[in-house]
Design brief:
Structural class of chain C: mainly alpha
Chains: A mainly alpha (161), B mainly alpha (93), C mainly alpha (117), D mainly alpha (113), E mainly alpha (543), F mainly alpha (972)
Low-confidence stretches of chain C: 109-117
Low-confidence stretches of chain F: 795-803, 954-972
Strand order of the largest sheet of chain F: 1-2
Mean pLDDT of chain F: 88
Structural class of chain F: mainly alpha
Helix content of chain C: over 70%
Shape of chain C: elongated
Shape of chain F: elongated
Oligomer: heterohexamer
Helix content of chain F: over 70%
Number of strands of chain F: 4
Distance between the termini of chain F: 76 Å
Largest sheet of chain C: none
Number of strands of chain C: 0
Strand content of chain F: under 5%
Mean pLDDT of chain C: 84
Bound molecules: sodium ion
Number of helices of chain F: 42
Radius of gyration of chain C: 19 Å
Chain lengths: 161, 93, 117, 113, 543, 972
């Protein structure tokens, strides 16, 4: 018997219940059954499993993200509409030194970067030490990098590593 | 108030449709293949939003599933196209 | 329109959310259309993926909860799926653009993607 | 609404017909896909246009006439699946023809002058 | 027993479907696959015979008036899909299973090993054919057309190679377009009448207002074009000769049935439309002219052909043309002979494709198609559990060789030639004679006039042209001595061809009961009220 | 002994002979001899039973009464006479052939065909049903084809056989039509019926056409001008065949039939003019041509044409006495001509040549043969005391009385005499130049008398000539009377068969002919033999070249016509289909008025904008598909998305769901295929600019626009008409109470019309299997064989397929997220599957979701990585799915309901509550599995083509993958 990945199974059961918008013994039982079946069937497709610690840190992370999404939307809207106060937006790539190396942590970081308009993921250097992003409007680059690492990378490091 | 809500719905749908029109123009003018793929992706997302607004206007949950499907797999086409541009084929050995 | 039966606690925030969604979608698509280079253009549609999608989903949740008479939250799944799948598309597109820009500078890829077709 | 949909069907059909009359296999397959959209919409239109009344019987008590006609929808579903299958087949055929004949002309050889 | 017999209608569809699916499990176990295939075909033949027997009203507790109906899912017509069998469809089922049996056995000598899934595809083709003959629903007819077409694509491509792929590209494209037309036609008919059931349709047409009727008939006309494409009517049939030549011989043999499905559809839907007093009932002088054009095309094409396979393909076209001419005359008495001719020409061309396949070997020792295979190694289909094998290794030639191969081939060739040319004494002649004498007998009828003579002229002309073409093709094949080798014929190849020829001989000898059956089949076709009444009768006591 | 035995026995013999070994010459001969003896004996035994009281023997067997067909053998005096001729001549020819045929030839086959021919000929003469007669008639053509082509390695044999078959069988088909027509006029195909309704037939308005058709049959068979040419070319047959078919029997079938139908058809001006003209032409032309032949058999062939012309002429004279003469001459000609053919065969056999210029003085070496030939030739020339003289006398007599006008009264006898002059001349030449005169000495073999077996038949026939010639009344008299009486019945004339009638005009004509003929040969011909031999008009008469040219012309013309009325180009075919469809669809609408009450509804602006996008995408795809495939593909995807949104807009969530899932898979699929389509360059840009190309494009554009407009119009008008609701209310009312589903579309798919779905998943399975089979033998285009350029240049290449763990580089995050998507896709797919009956979804969408999940795995991790971990076995999915659906359908049988009737059970489980089980769900599960299997099979089969690639390249330059491949191999 292989080890059952608990978080994944639970997530799948949750997904099942959410989809069916129903909470009954039958639906939970079927959800568990289905999730276990699936998880076991594809176990070999997921050779690397995340080891999660400090999962509770995800909540402030999410809150930060939501605020950032709104702010960055505003920023992008300004650039698109040309409301940047006589200033030409400077777009380009920036490199961020990276400490996070867990693949799942990186994946979440990618989600975050993608979810905030104005930044997009341009890849990690082969050695895994530098993250390159594309920014629509680069202002005060160093400050931005510091804040980014502070708000996201550090929390992800605590969750995944 | 519901009339205003109706207008808002109409407004949202019109905006989404215009957004699709913009995406279509980008799809036509390119200039690079990746621009077209980006426009394609944008079309899909706009389509998903349109489905959601249709769901709101009909007050039916039936549209939710479609939006769900686009959310889940709408990216597959984009990824396939991008992979094709990047690697020359969608599924590598 | 059958939305006449909806209560005010739905229609007022709903109206705002839908208007927001419409405006952000429009601005996002304008970004796609107007911005100068490909990498910049990518940021436009991501407005649609985030605020516009979020606002619409919230509106949808409000309406369906009102119709069903109980909180309906399965729209969250859409938000989850979009946010998880969007990076895949974005990453691949950026990589493709980077590769093709490089290749074009070395002069053997046409602009329309027909290089390997 | 009917006018818009009818025009849409017409444009899809016209583009499809134009493409299947072209000499390159890829043009033909694109034409077949467009034609299948047109034909599916045409079948669908035969049930007349009804908005906001999907034929799903829920709590709302409605007269049968108020629902959208489910029959063309079922037919289109079958047609969509079959077009998908045949598109796949045609694609592979097109690949095989390109490999075996060395050309993507539908007749398997380039036209003489 | 009676309960069992009532389910007999679904057996010809279900047996090949289930067997075809089961064979996918059998992987490399060829013996088991063969047993399954043969069993399935035999079951179909038995079912067809039973149905044929039942349509003679021999079992009045089950069906009367020669029409049997089966409500799938217990939903009555016109709401659910019904299968309907009458004498004509029972006969077509039997014909299908007989030709299939011959072709299947023939293919066991070599062809079934050339590519995977041959047996499954073959079974699915039979399912499509049987379904098309049985269904009483227009859209379901479309579905079965698709089933048979899809499997025909697969079987046509069977063995791959440049020729097949090129021909398939045309065949597939044309048929996809035809399918679109079919869909548009059915959709319009639904849009105007709200029904898909053929029997129900007849009644609904009469209720249409005049301006609606024009729209309806436009839809019916589009449907008719789709049928004509499948039947191979000029100018919609340029794809046909190339396709049939490209097909391997056992597949060519089954393909001679495919065009007749189109003819069957014209006949079936046409009589229903006629029952509804539709202007466009397919079966009118327009069909006659279409048939005449088809005959002209086939005659010219045949005379221009040097290759025997191509000549046989044109014979297939000829028979379609003649059938359409005869049907277009709208002489009810002609329908019996028309069906006879249909049966005879299917047997003849099927046998001929097989004989041609065997005879081609007198020219090249190895089977020609063998030369046309992609040179790359088979890929590792690790996921599919299949060991690549060379399908063309000499050990594949199995079976007992028959003596006097050339004598057999010559005799078989002559018999086939007689059959397709309509020369005495085989069934081809009887059929042509029956058409001739009925046409002549009704030539004085009002409104037919010279058209009947046109049919007679066509019958004679096609006979002469076929003879001229076949003597050339035959002489070329058999009697030019350069580089000829005596082929090794195996019983499992020669037997099926002989079987079909013997069948046509039996048809000649036992023509009296056959003709009685055919005439009653024709009568029931021309009085569709029985068909309609029986189908609509399923509504009684239904939910 | 019965009539049927006479007909069946030869066929039985033929069948047996066919199965004798090729070298069994004696066995075959004995068999044939036996058959012919029995047949002859049977005829001889039956013949005397024909009396005045009972003039006809009949045997009937029912065959197809509905078609007026019966097996009806009928022997009267005339048929009996002919049957005797056929059977007895058969016996003689078998005897002759036994010695004539070389042991190297496959003699059993020869006898097989000969016996079959004899059976056919006997059948022809003994037929009492005219259709049956036609059947045997065509059989004689067919067997004669086989006999002429017996030495098929010879080109002249093949050509002669084909010519004979085409001419006579075509005539036979005309005859068939004529007989069918005749039967419809007379009210049956029974010979008695037809003969009895002569007056009706002759008075019928179609009589001339019927006559023409029947004459076409008869005259082609009897080699009459202008259809004579096949006979000389048929001389390529072995001589026994010529002796039998081309003198005694087959060629007589035509005149036999004319005499047979004489009471029904003769007596009109058309009959007279056609037969007399053609008969006279054949008589004269045959005689003249015979004189100038070099080949012995050709002389005899033209002579046959001439003599048959004589018979035709006699038959055409509308006089009973002429009929008597005709029948008499049929017999006489058979005897002497067969004998002469045999003699010619003997000469050929013994000397090795039939060239009259090389032959000469053979009477020294073969005196008996010479004597036989001399007498036979004399009979042919009409020398008194031989049978030929008697019938010729009768002929001369008839020519004098036949005509009405003065022209004919003089011309007919004159031409008859002239023809006889030539007849005497070629007879003289035949016998003189071969057997007498100077021996040339350059013969291939030294001549000597043949074996008795070869000589005896010929001698016997000559003896018959003498016997009849000397004692006509005692020998042939009664037989002839009985024969004529059976044709004419009460109208039989009195006639006397005497050698000497006194000095009459006919005698004078005979004398003139003999003298003139001798003179022509001795003086005119021999003096200018060389000049005459090269006579320029011989070639056209020969017909060989004309025939060949005709056949080649037919091919050429038909090739050209085929190109004109058909095309092997797909575009032409498709254009025609579209145009024909447009025309057919428009036809019922022409003149129809627009239905009343068409009112447009308000347009939602968003929807209009949506279709602005959709239409632009479609048009963009149409313009881009040639050079910018990827752009076209994306645009088509855009149109698909808009189509999907339209479904959603108009209350079809199921459709929209399905369409969107299919869209995604189709995009991936097309891209997978695009990898194998090498780049298009704009090389043919110049060609596009040509005027013709522009015209073609303009035409196509017009057709496309018309098609689009037509569909628009139809769709619009129908949409605006009030719907006819038949199925819709039923389904909506019964879906919930009777089928237990809220989603009516799904209920239709799995229950009401589940059978359609059954077919549909079968189609999907078939296509998947086909794709798979085709790809197993896929040969990529040369240009796309290598790695795509991107991969060749990319250093990160090895990143993807590293053994365990995750790929590096940009593939890392897609791999992480993609693998997470797999179980999510599983859950979502099951969700769609299970809820389908009550809400949008169902097996199809569920299956596609699952398949997409699997495909995403392949996309993010590569084929090798996935397949080393996950075996999908798509074949089994397909098979299981189909079987599940089938079982779901069959389950109904156990509750005595028809196939696919839904069967439901509520199962109460402990703790969990009640579980609703239904065969409908099983059916939908079947759909699900088929969709998963088929989709994965198709896409993965294409994806595997790159594997083929990488395997090749890896073996070529030993790249990193080589470590992975053995793992896969071992795994299998
Ligand atoms: Na972003
Ligand atoms: Na001589």
């Amino acid at each position: 018997m292989r080890q059952v990945p608990l978080y994944l199974t639970l997530a799948l059961v949750g997904l099942w219940l959410l989809l069916n918008a129903e909470l009954s013994v039958l639906s939970i039982a079927s959800g568990v059954l289905l999730a276990l079946l699936l998880v076991l069937a594809i176990a070999r497709l997921r050779p690397v499993r995340p080891r999660l610690r400090h999962v509770h840190l995800a909540i402030p992370l999410l809150a930060t993200l939501l605020v950032d999404i709104v702010l960055s939307n505003l920023a992008v809207a300004r650039v698109v509409l040309g409301l940047t106060r006589n200033r030409q937006a400077r777009s380009g790539f920036i490199d961020i030194p990276l400490e996070l190396s867990d693949p799942h942590g990186l994946a979440v970081l990618a989600v975050i970067v993608t979810a905030t308009p104005g930044t997009s993921w341009a890849g990690v250097a082969p050695d895994g030490r530098v993250l390159r992003l594309h920014m629509l409007d680069i202002r005060n680059e160093d400050e931005w990098i510091r804040s980014f690492k502070q708000r996201y990378e550090r929390r992800l490091l605590r969750i995944f590593q | 108030m519901s009339a205003v809500f109706g207008y808002a719905l109409w407004f949202a749908q019109a905006c989404i449709a215009i957004a699709m029109l913009n995406a279509m123009i980008r799809l036509f003018i390119g200039p690079a293949a990746q621009d077209r793929v980006l426009a394609f992706d944008s079309l899909y997302m706009n389509g998903m939003l349109l489905l959601l607004t249709l769901g709101i206007s009909s007050m039916s949950t039936a549209y939710f599933d479609m939006a769900l499907l686009i959310a889940l797999f709408g990216f597959v086409g984009t990824v396939a196209l991008a992979r094709f541009l990047l690697r020359g084929e969608v599924i590598e050995p | 329109m059958t939305t006449a039966v909806l209560p005010l606690w739905v229609t007022i925030p709903g109206t705002v959310l839908l208007a927001l969604a419409g405006v952000t979608t429009l601005i996002g698509s304008l970004g796609l259309l107007r911005l100068r280079d490909f990498f910049s253009r990518m940021h436009g549609p991501s407005m649609t993926n985030t605020v516009a999608a979020g606002a619409t989903l919230l509106a949808s949740m409000l309406v369906s909860s009102a119709v069903a008479g109980r909180p309906i939250i399965h729209e969250l799944l859409i938000a989850l799926f979009v946010s998880v799948s969007a990076p895949l598309a974005a990453i691949m597109l950026v990589q493709a653009a980077l590769y093709r820009n490089k290749a074009r500078h070395s002069g053997d890829v046409t602009t329309d993607g027909s290089s390997s077709t | 609404m009917e006018l818009v949909l009818a025009l849409a069907i017409g444009v899809l059909t016209a583009c499809g017909v134009w493409l299947i009359l072209r000499p390159r296999t890829f043009q033909v397959i694109m034409g077949l896909v467009l034609l299948s959209y047109g034909v599916n919409l045409f079948i669908f239109a035969m049930g007349r246009l009804v908005t906001d009344r999907p034929p799903i019987l829920d709590a709302r008590p409605l007269e049968a006439a108020q629902y959208a006609d489910p029959v063309p929808q079922a037919l289109v579903l079958t047609a969509i699946v079959i077009s998908f299958a045949t598109t796949a087949l045609f694609l592979v055929l097109l690949m095989a023809a390109r490999g075996l004949t060395g050309t993507d002309h539908v007749d398997g050889k380039e036209p003489d002058s | 027993m009676i309960a069992l017999l009532q389910h007999m209608l679904i057996v010809p569809i279900l047996a090949p479907l289930l067997v075809g699916a089961m064979q996918l499990f059998l992987g490399e176990r060829r013996g088991a696959r063969i047993v399954c295939s043969l069993a399935s075909v035999l079951v179909q033949a038995a079912a067809a015979l039973t149905l044929l027997y039942m349509t003679t009203d021999a079992m009045p507790d089950i069906w009367t008036e020669g029409v049997g109906v089966y409500t799938i899912g217990s939903w009555p017509a016109p709401f659910g899909i019904v299968l309907v069998v009458d004498r004509l469809s029972a006969l077509m089922l039997l014909l299908t299973s007989l030709v299939a049996l011959a072709s299947l056995v023939y293919s066991l000598a070599y062809w079934d090993r050339v590519a995977p899934a041959f047996h499954s595809l073959f079974q699915f083709l039979l399912m499509g054919l049987n379904g098309a003959f049985l269904t009483g629903d227009l859209f379901n007819l479309f579905v079965f057309f698709e089933v048979l077409l899809a499997s025909s694509y697969g079987l046509l491509l069977h063995g791959s190679g440049v020729g097949r792929v090129k021909a398939s590209l045309h065949y597939v494209t044309v048929n996809l377009l035809a399918s679109f037309l079919f869909l548009i036609g059915v959709a319009m008919i639904y849009g105007m009448t709200g029904t898909l059931n053929m029997a129900d349709l007849a009644g609904r047409i009469m209720l249409l207002a005049p301006h609606d009727r024009a729209l309806f008939e436009s839809g019916a006309a589009i449907l008719g074009v789709a049928f004509l494409i499948k039947a191979g009517a000029w100018p919609l049939n340029f794809w046909l000769p190339t396709t049939y030549v490209a097909a391997s011989s056992p597949i060519g043999a089954v393909f001679s049935l495919l065009t007749k499905v189109g003819v069957y559809a014209v006949l079936r839907v046409g009589t229903v439309l006629a029952a509804g007093n539709a202007e466009t009932s397919f079966i009118d002088l327009g069909l006659f002219y279409g048939g005449a054009a088809t005959v002209a095309y086939a005659v010219v094409g045949m005379l221009a052909s040097r290759q025997l396979g191509r000549i046989i393909s044109y014979c297939v076209v000829t028979s379609t043309g003649l059938l359409f001419m005869a049907l277009g005359l709208r002489i009810d008495a002609l329908t019996g002979p028309v069906i006879l001719y249909l049966v005879s020409s299917v047997l003849a061309t099927s046998a001929f494709f097989m004989v041609n396949g065997l005879a081609q070997r007198t020219r090249t020792h190895r089977i020609r198609e063998a030369a046309d295979v992609a040179p790359l190694p088979d890929i590792t289909y690790a996921g599919f559990d299949i060991t690549p094998q060379d399908p063309l290794s000499p050990k594949d030639e199995v079976g007992i060789a028959i003596p006097a191969a050339m004598a057999f081939l010559g005799l078989a060739f002559i018999c086939c030639a007689l059959l397709v040319a309509g020369l005495p004494p085989l069934s081809g002649f009887i059929a042509k004679f029956a058409l001739l004498s009925t046409a002549v007998g009704h030539s004085a009828d009002a409104g037919i006039g010279w058209h009947a003579w046109g049919l007679c002229a066509a019958l004679i002309t096609t006979g002469v042209a076929t003879m001229i073409a076949l003597t050339r093709g035959g002489l070329r094949l058999f009697w030019t001595s350069q580089g000829r080798t005596t082929p090794r014929l195996r019983i499992i190849e020669a037997g099926p061809a002989a079987f079909l020829i013997l069948l046509s001989m039996a048809l000649t000898a036992g023509i009296a009961p056959v003709m009685t059956y055919l005439n009653s089949a024709a009568r029931s076709l021309h009085s569709p009220d029985v068909y309609i009444r029986v189908v609509n009768g399923t509504r009684e006591g239904a939910p | 002994m019965s009539l049927s035995l006479i007909v069946i026995l030869p066929f039985a013999g033929a069948l047996i002979a066919a199965f004798l070994p090729a070298h069994a010459r004696n066995a075959a001969s004995w068999l044939s001899g036996l058959v012919t003896i029995v047949c002859t004996a049977a005829v001889v035994r039956l013949y005397p039973s024909l009396t005045a009281a009972e003039p006809v023997l009949r045997e009937r067997l029912s065959w197809a009464p509905q078609l007026g067909l019966e097996l009806y053998l009928r022997m009267d005096g005339y048929a009996g006479l002919f049957a005797l001729l056929v059977a007895f001549m058969g016996l003689l020819v078998v005897l002759y052939a036994r010695y004539y045929m070389s042991p190297q030839d496959p003699v059993p086959r020869f006898f097989s065909f000969l016996l079959a021919f004899m059976g056919a000929m006997l059948g022809t003469v003994l037929s009492g049903n005219l259709i049956q007669l036609v059947i045997f008639w065509e059989l004689t053509s067919l067997t004669s084809f086989m006999l002429i082509a017996y030495w098929y390695h010879r080109a002249d044999a093949r050509r002669g056989a084909r010519m004979a078959l085409i001419v006579t069988a075509t005539g036979g088909m005309c005859l068939l039509l004529g007989i069918v027509w005749l039967g419809s006029i007379a009210g049956g195909f029974d010979l008695d019926t037809v003969l009895a309704s002569g007056a009706t037939i002759r008075a019928h308005e179609h009589y001339p056409v019927v006559l023409m058709l029947i004459l076409l049959g008869a005259l082609t068979k009897s080699a009459q001008v202008p259809f004579h040419f096949w006979l000389p070319n048929a001389m390529a047959a072995p001589t026994p065949v010529s002796a039998y078919l081309h003198s005694a029997t087959m060629v007589k079938a035509g005149v036999f039939l004319l005499a047979r139908l004489w009471p029904a058809l003769a007596g009109t001006a058309e009959w007279f003019w056609i037969l007399c003209t053609l008969g006279l032409a054949s008589l004269l032309l045959g005689a003249v041509a015979a004189l100038f032949q070099r080949d012995l058999k050709a002389v005899l062939a033209y002579s046959t044409i001439s003599h048959l012309g004589l018979i035709t002429l006699l038959l055409g004279m509308n006089s009973p006495l002429a009929l008597v003469a005709a029948v008499f001459h049929m017999m006489n000609h058979a005897t002497f001509k067969a004998s002469l053919f045999m003699a010619a065969g003997i000469v050929d056999h013994e000397t090795g040549t039939r060239d009259m210029r090389r032959l000469g003085g053979l009477s020294q070496a073969m005196p008996i043969t010479a004597g036989v030939a001399l007498v036979a030739c004399a009979a042919m020339a009409g020398v008194p005391l031989l049978n030929g003289f008697l019938s010729k006398e009768m002929f001369f007599a008839e020519t004098i009385f036949a005509g009405e006008g003065p022209l004919i009264r003089i011309a007919l006898p004159a031409i008859a005499t002239l023809a006889s002059v030539f007849s005497v001349a070629y007879s003289a030449r035949f016998v003189h130049s071969v057997f007498f005169g100077r021996a040339t000495g350059d013969l291939p073999r030294a001549p000597h008398e043949p074996t008795r077996g070869m000589l005896a038949p010929s001698a016997l026939l000559v003896f018959a000539c003498l016997l009849v010639g000397i004692l006509p009344e005692q020998t042939i008299g009664p037989v002839l009377r009985l024969a004529v009486a059976s044709i004419l019945g009460a109208a039989t004339p009195e006639f006397s068969l005497k050698i000497w009638h006194g000095f009459t005009t006919p005698v004078l004509m005979s004398v003139l002919a003999l003298a003139g003929g001798s003179f022509v040969y001795a003086v005119l011909f021999r003096r200018s033999a060389r000049a005459m031999a090269a006579a320029p008009w011989r070639a056209p008469l020969d017909g060989r070249r004309a025939f060949d040219v005709t056949m080649v012309m037919i091919v050429r013309v038909c090739e050209r016509l085929t190109r004109a009325i058909s095309s092997r180009r797909l575009q032409v075919q498709l254009l025609l289909i579209v145009v024909v469809t447009l025309a057919t669809a428009a036809a019922p609408l022409l003149g129809a008025s627009l239905p009343p009450g068409l009112a447009l509804t308000r347009v939602a602006s968003a929807f209009a904008l949506l279709w602005l996008v959709g239409a632009a995408c479609a048009i963009g795809a149409a313009t881009q598909a040639k050079y910018h495939r990827l752009a076209a593909l994306i645009m088509v995807g855009g149109a698909g998305l808009v189509t999907c949104l339209t479904f959603a807009w108009f209350s079809a969530p199921d459709l929209a769901l399905t369409q969107i899932s299919v869209e995604v898979v189709t995009t991936v699929l097309l891209l997978l295929g695009l990898r194998w389509m090498p780049r298009r360059t704009k090389v043919d840009e110049l060609r596009r600019k040509s005027l013709r190309a522009r015209a073609r494009r303009a035409r196509d554009l017009l057709v496309a626009v018309v098609a689009g407009a037509g569909v628009t119009g139809l769709a619009l008008v129908i949409m605006l008409r009030p719907p006819v609701e038949v199925l819709k209310p039923f389904f909506l009312e019964h879906a919930l109470p009777d089928a237990g589903g809220h989603n009516v579309v799904n209920v239709i798919l799995v229950d009401f019309r589940g059978f359609d779905t059954f077919g549909e998943i079968t189609v999907l399975s078939i296509v998947a299997l086909t794709v798979y089979a085709l790809l197993r033998r896929f040969r990529p285009a040369a240009e796309s064989r290598g790695l795509p350029r991107a991969q060749r240049e990319d250093e990160a290449r090895a990143a993807l397929a590293s053994g365990e763990g995750l790929p590096g580089g940009y593939s890392l995050i897609p791999a992480v997220v993609g693998r997470m998507l797999m179980p999510v896709a599983g859950i979502v797919s099951v969700y769609f599957l299970l809820r389908g009956h009550n809400a949008p979804g169902g097996g199809f969408v569920g299956g596609l979701v699952m398949a997409t999940g699997i495909i995403v795995q392949y996309m993010t991790s590569g084929v090798l990585w996935v397949e080393s971990r996950l075996r999908v076995h798509p074949h089994y999915w397909i098979a299981l799915g189909l079987l599940a659906a089938g079982v779901a359908g069959i389950t109904a049988w156990f509750v005595a309901a028809p196939f696919l009737t839904s069967v439901e059970r509520d199962l109460t489980l402990p703790l969990l509550g009640s579980l609703h089980l239904s065969t409908v769900l099983l059916f939908d599960l079947g759909v699900y599995m088929v969709v998963v299997g088929a989709t994965v099979l198709m896409l993965i089969a294409i994806a595997h083509q790159s594997l083929r690639q990488s395997r090749k390249s890896s073996s070529a330059d030993e790249r990193a993958e080589i470590g992975v491949m053995p793992a896969i191999e071992a795994d299998r």
